[in-house]
UniProtKB/TrEMBL annotation:
Cited InterPro entries: 6Pfruct_kin, His_Pase_superF_clade-1, His_PPase_superfam, PG/BPGM_mutase_AS, PGM_Phosphatase
Superkingdom as given in the UniProt entry: Bacteria
PROSITE patterns: PG_MUTASE
SUPFAM superfamilies associated with the record: Phosphoglycerate mutase-like (SSF53254)
Gene3D superfamilies to which the protein is assigned, alphabetical: Phosphoglycerate mutase-like (3.40.50.1240)
UniProt name for this protein: Histidine phosphatase family protein
Organism, as annotated: Brevibacillus porteri
Signal peptide limits: none
Length: 193
């Protein structure tokens, strides 16, 4: 039995707008992010969704709650769905990082490795999908984590360093016979109205 997973990036935050690294920092949606969350929620009107999951960070949870609200449903949160931890880089712009940490490697700054984040993403998605055979589920997470999962599923053809994941974009996966397949990537049609 197949599981369909709608994997959605959270709505925009002020830090997204000014390109400040968020990582595990709990930054709220900005006004545009709230509108984006409302639009993606409207996109699911008339769909049959069986469960809703999100990262425990408010930008993801609040986006998921907008969608789940249309179904009079609650959202299950998972810390495993969080963005990559960026340690000392969190709260800084890319320019500030280059100035302050020019001669330091990522590990010395407390940054989670890409491989660790990807393993966490794959384990979380597989556990969630395995709990919903034959159902459709919504999972709201973060751009880096979604891209790392996409990279895994496509064996590097898409994902990190290749694919852009926009705020409230929908990337759809099918999980069947313990294998993942990509159905669509970074769909933002709901934002074009």
């Amino acid at each position: 039995m197949e599981t369909i997973m709608y994997l959605i990036r959270h709505g925009e935050t002020e830090w997204n707008q000014i390109r400040r690294i968020q990582g595990h920092s709990d930054i709220a949606l900005n006004e545009l992010g709230v509108r984006q969350a409302e639009r993606v929620a409207d996109r699911f009107q008339g769909e049959k969704i069986h469960a809703f999951y999100s990262s425990d960070l408010s930008r993801a949870h609040d986006t998921a709650a907008k969608i789940a609200g249309n179904f009079q449903s609650s959202v299950s949160t998972r810390t495993t769905l969080r963005e990559r931890c960026y340690g000392e880089w969190e709260g800084l712009t890319y320019e500030e990082i280059r100035e302050r940490f020019e001669n330091q490697d990522e590990a010395s700054c407390g940054i989670e490795t890409f491989e660790d984040m990807q393993r966490r993403a794959v384990a979380a998605m597989t556990e969630i999908a395995g709990s919903h055979p034959g159902e459709a589920i919504v999972v709201v997470s973060h751009g880096g984590l979604i891209n790392s999962f996409l990279h895994y599923v496509t064996v590097g053809e898409q994902g990190t360093g290749i694919t852009r994941i926009d705020n409230t974009s929908i990337t759809i996966f099918r999980y069947v016979d313990r294998r993942w397949e990509v159905l669509s990537v970074n769909d933002t049609d709901h934002l074009k109205a």
